[in-house]
């Protein structure tokens, strides 16, 4: 077994929590059950990794088997990577039969025609997800197994989830290989990124049920109240306002947890309306800007704005529509004239 393969297997084992090493090696299936019985999984991970490497040497492991172990690890811990969503388009609406063997053949042939030094591995899962691991090299160097790209493609859907390596210059090659293999003609990034792969799937596959606002804030009614009952009135109004905010927040976001989205971006185009006498604008041209949102948990952060008193309830559709709009457009473009007057960052 090559020394680089042995070192890669050792490092992969070290990444796995000690209590889960045996289970993951069983899923890998490269070592027999009898071999696994000889490993002491209660010792420190460094010693466990050395014993695993020794057994892999007995079985003459190569980089293909090592890559499969890495795919299993990333499938169990997808949150260790940052994922982006891409959507593909085709000219017609016809539905073609998906042939996995043909897909693999086309993908490898297209990628290797552009770059010889590349390692490509596939693994299929029960949810029709095809996991693809790509280790990139250069015309003069071998593939770097520590700077890999991952692709998760669900057959019969136009959506692709990509966790790119630091070598972003290879993204055009990867996208072109996906288009050729899946018989699509165009691919674009949807400007959605997150560590939570499952949350991104929930959004684009519409597994996330979100309500949309139908209520608008009403001004509090003023009443003539005797001074001695002023404190009671204020307490009651505060209670009513809190209940109203909770009800409207529930109408907009629902009762369940929000998908974990960390980044969203879209283009905004609107007309700036001002007093003609002020002569602010010589020409009536649309106001264009790029709106970016980022947070460790973007949707939960938006959900907490109104209860925290940082925004009126219900929130603007500009904020609450992010998951819905993301499913329908590559980059969200709001209608003109939606926000007259001044522009305030939320």
Explained architecture:
This protein is of the alpha+beta class. It folds into three domains: 3-76, no CATH class; 83-195, Double Stranded RNA Binding Domain (2-Layer Sandwich), CATH 3.30.160; 246-275 and 283-333, Ubiquitin-like (UB roll), CATH 3.10.20. 38% of the residues lie in helices and 18% in strands. It contains twelve helices and eight strands. It has helices at 3-15, 21-28, 33-37, 45-58, 63-76, 100-114, 171-182, 197-204, 230-253, 298-303, 317-320, 322-328, and strands at 83-89, 118-124, 129-136, 148-154, 159-163, 186-194, 263-271, 286-294. Strands 2-3-4-5-1-6-7-8 form an eight-stranded antiparallel sheet, sandwiched between helices. Helix 2 (21-28) packs across helix 5 (63-76). The longest helix has 24 residues, at 230-253. The chain is globular. Belongs to the CENP-N/CHL4 family. It comes from Charadrius vociferus (Killdeer).
């Amino acid at each position: 077994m090559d020394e680089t393969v042995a070192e890669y297997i050792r490092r992969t084992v070290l990444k796995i929590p000690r209590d889960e090493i045996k289970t993951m090696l069983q899923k890998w299936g490269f070592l027999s059950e009898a071999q696994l019985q000889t490993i002491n999984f209660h010792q420190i991970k460094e010693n466990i990794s050395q014993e695993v490497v020794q057994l892999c040497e007995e079985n003459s492991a190569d980089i293909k088997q090592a890559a499969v172990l890495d795919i299993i690890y990333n499938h169990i811990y997808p949150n260790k990577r940052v994922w982006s969503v891409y959507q593909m388009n085709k000219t017609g609406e016809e539905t073609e039969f998906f042939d996995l063997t043909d897909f693999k053949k086309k993908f490898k042939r297209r990628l290797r025609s552009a770059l010889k030094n590349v390692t490509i591995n596939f693994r299929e899962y029960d949810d029709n997800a095809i996991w693809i691991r790509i280790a990139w090299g250069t015309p003069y160097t071998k593939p770097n197994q520590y700077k890999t790209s991952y692709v998760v493609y669900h057959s019969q859907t136009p959506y692709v989830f990509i966790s790119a390596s630091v070598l972003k210059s290879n993204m055009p090659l990867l996208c072109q290989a996906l288009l050729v293999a899946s018989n699509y003609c165009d691919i674009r990034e949807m400007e959605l990124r997150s560590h939570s792969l499952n949350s991104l799937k929930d959004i684009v596959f519409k597994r996330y049920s979100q309500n949309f606002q139908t209520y608008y804030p009403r001004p509090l009614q003023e009443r003539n109240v005797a001074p001695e009952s002023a404190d009671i009135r204020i307490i009651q109004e505060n209670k009513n306002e809190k209940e109203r905010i909770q009800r409207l927040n529930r109408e907009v976001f629902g009762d369940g947890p929000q998908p974990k989205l960390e980044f969203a971006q879209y283009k905004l185009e609107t007309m700036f309306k001002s007093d003609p006498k002020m002569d602010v604008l010589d020409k009536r041209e649309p106001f264009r800007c790029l709106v970016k949102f980022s947070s460790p948990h973007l949707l939960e952060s938006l959900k907490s704005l109104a209860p925290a008193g940082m925004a009126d309830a219900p929130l603007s559709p500009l904020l609450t529509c992010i998951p819905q709009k993301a499913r329908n457009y590559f980059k969200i473009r709001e209608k003109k004239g939606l926000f007259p007057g001044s522009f305030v960052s939320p």
